[in-house]
Amino acid sequence: MADEKKNKTVLVTGAAGGLGIHIVQDLAARGWTVHALDRVDLATSRRQSLLNEELHVHWWCGAVDGAMIAEAMEGCQAVVHAAGVTSLSANDDELYRANHDLSRQVFRLAAQRDIEHFVHISCASVYGADTAVRTETSPTETYNLFEDSKLDAEITLQEMADAPGAPPLTILRLGLLYGPGCTTMGAAMVTMPAILRGISSLLPGLSGGPRTNWCHVEDAAGAVSIVLDNPEARGRTFNVADETALSFGEVLTSIIEGYDINLGPSVRVPSLALWTLLSPVFDNDWAFERTRDVLRLMWRRIQREHQLDSPLTPRLDRDAIFYVSDDAIVVADALKELGWTPKWTDFRAGIADTIRWYQEQRWVPRFDLEALAERRDQAPSARITYDEQLRGPLTGSDDGADDGPTVELDLHVTWSSLPMPPLRQEATIDGTITLSDRAQAAPLQGTIGLRWMPRMIMEYEFGFRDQEDRACRFSGSRSFSPAEPLGSLLKLEGTFVDEKGRFIGRTVAKRTDGVLSLLTTDKLAEPS
Description:
It is a single chain. Helices cover 30% and strands 27% of the residues. The chain is an alpha/beta fold. The protein has 2 domains: 277 residues, 3-Layer(aba) Sandwich (Rossmann fold); 152 residues.
């Protein structure tokens, strides 16, 4: 195949984007010489790792105008137009300039240069919202400015393609796009589990809600290559999406599991409840803006704590509610008849791989024990450290029985600085746990969060692996009581769960070395 295309050249617009970079990589790997056009260069896009630098790619970067487009198009036999704006928050003018006007300009220049084939990237959201199963013949209907701009661009290009001498047009309508390098649309959802993990270490599993299927960027890029190679694709529109329709709850659960975050009991998310929950926020301007501001502040804090350098940002868009209100299953059978086969047939596998890529690039945090150890080792050398030993019963209820299995904790606690009110502070803990017949002196690692208001609470979170190498987690707290100022701080109350969030037991463990040891073991570590 590569030999057949050694004299074939293709222009890809939006080449440095989350989708464009995969199109460039796929076409170049298949033997095309690629002219890559974008407003930003590859280094600025921070997607260099997705492109093999040894492939035949020539870049044009800067203010994209007619002259630059014409120059980049010189010598090309095909054009793939992937440039555009995908933000639902963008204003009308910005959307139409990027999605409609630019498409028309690129196609007009292609018609003037005898381009043999023009592939235009659109989206499957242009179908009517009440169309549960969407084929290429399903009726189109738009509900926001983004969809307006995409559908109007399709209509304009189809009209231009009917003119004599115009290049054959193929339109690809992509399902919800995700994958390595993506920063918009579904990618914003990847930030939410990290934000919620900062509030609680045990997140619920979710199920139910409207169903839809997604589209991995690698499979979208493969679809471009398939239609460029096949004359039967010319003059046609194709859907592009994976084969597995998941509920909204399953999608969110898959993202949480992709982080390797422990899940609690499953909570069903029906469509009606989702609308009821979100409507007060989406309908009230003040509440909407404050909620969006809080999410961004929390994400910035996560980036500081985990030393991230991320282009991702949590998004809250009013129009996004339409994408989680009804079933929207995109059928790509017509494209499969041309030979297209998706590599990522299920979002659950694709999002786990995507999150790993994000973590490697330091776009999102890691919550595994190794990452916790890395953050601990990077703590300042001058710090507060102490040891504590605790013991208590493991019970299956709140009856407080003292017989039965026991819990033994041997902890080493490290504070990066002297804990002082009023700000919340965090310490790292490591040590061992003996948990009845489930774990014998098993290594553990975790954190202690100290909150001062409205009363002082120390929140313990740590993980360990049992004798069957299964992940387990403890969540508990110590609460200061004025009636028992010292004794209350000797008790640690909490719950153990397994890797599926299933209840193991609870404990009220007491410090075995007493009040005097608590007051005298704190020490300032010597600078290294």
